[in-house]
Amino acid sequence: MAESLYYRTAAELSRALESKELSSEEIVRSVIERTRAVDDKVSAFISFDEGDALERARASDRRRAEGKALGPLDGIPVGIKDVLAVEGQPLTCASRMLGKFVSPYDATAIARLKAAGAVPWGRLNMDEFAMGSSTENSSVKTTSNPWNTDCIPGGSSGGSAACVAAGEAPISLGSDTGGSIRQPAALCGVVGMKPTYGLVSRYGLVAFASSLDQIGPFAHTVEDAAILLQAVAGHDDRDSSSYRTDIPDYRKELSSRKGPWKLGIPKEYFGEGLDPEVARAIEAAIDFYRGEGCEIVDVSLPHTEHAVGVYYIIATAEASSNLARYDGVRYSHRSAEATDAIDLYFKSRAEGFGPEVKRRVILGTYVLSSGYYDAYYLKAQKVRTLIRRDFLQAYEKVDALLTPTTPSPAFRKGEKTDDPLQMYLSDIFTISANLAGIPGISIPCGFSESGLPIGLQILGQPFQEADLFAIARRFEQAHDYHTRHPSL
Fold first, then answer.
1. Does the annotation count 180 as an active-site position?
2. Where are the domains of the chain?
3. Tens digit of pLDDT for each residue in 225-236?
4. Of residues 138, 172, 180, 408, which has the active-site annotation?
5. Domain covering 3-264+396-483, topology
6. Is residue 262 flagged as an active site residue?
7. Active site residue 255
């Protein structure tokens, strides 16, 4: 199998399908072959169903032969984070709690992918119930960073980022609660995008923190991310937080939006704790935009220092509530040692949840408990409002913000597992966007001296994803970082 096939972008593959240079079956067989060749090193997948993928590929080829292609994604394989429901496929969230669960229905995002003719490909590894920043909290396996398999790929969507970086799928879907798309995208050298909260339906996404969770794309290029977002975005009556808004043609807007833009540099993102190699790469990216005629403006987001604390109150509180449904009675892990109903709850949850999930459920239960609700949860919600206000005030002066995605390149496996606070700080630059509900994208912008990718984060105005894509594309077109691939 030629590298030119398994590392082709979704847009390139789509053009090859249109011209009949390739069939969908050939493309799907290539990712199956690539996955079998390298996934023992990467461990991006929890499971995959070759038969189902090939059947869908053949159906796509029949449609194209009849002149009935469903769009640019028809016949393209898409990796799926194991937190999204795909009918008839396992839905484990990388947890023992759901180890034997098979989804009886499709998430809205998956239904829309299927309606576009895309081929859902495999179940991708993640931190258990999306709680983590390194994919070391999976109950199944630890995913490796394809650029250095001794390092973590980021999290919680580590499998979704690693599979694209390793050529095991051209594009994939993940979820982002505090940076879980953008952070692993940066660490694995791919594009990762968190849309505005409410743009993509959360129906069929296993809930971690319902007011923060959002589904988004991973890809090699901004164009591919735009194509994938186009397929899954839009209002859904089954999600009460889904927002009614017109969805532009993101791909077409890439070429029509030329800039130059007014770009803000928030000083709070460039202080203590930022790795010098990351700082240099981000400064070079800022200089590039300045050279392109963009006006660079210093801005302040004064409540940024409270973001991590606010996030770990709100997210854990919502997790505590959402995970109460896993009680051993209905569809989750059921302890064989229980002697009565109360014992069943205790033992099933003790056996089913891993250490990080337990830690967050306990924290969340505490901040919601009588006597502490006002002191912690209510106060955190008030500060969250101030964080969002900071962004909206900054957007009165600028079109978007440029920041690092992560404080450092990927760290080694096990380096931070004994220090939860240091692990939580891995998301320090991404958390605020979830609290504010704004969109953000991470694109490759350099490499460390040791050869690990570095990501540039661009934060945009609510529901202005088209601008965000165009700004990111300007940098991408002038650099070759997105064309480099790891040796596996």
1. yes
2. 3-264+396-483
3. 999 999 999 999
4. 180
5. Amidase signature (AS) enzymes (3.90.1300)
6. no
7. no
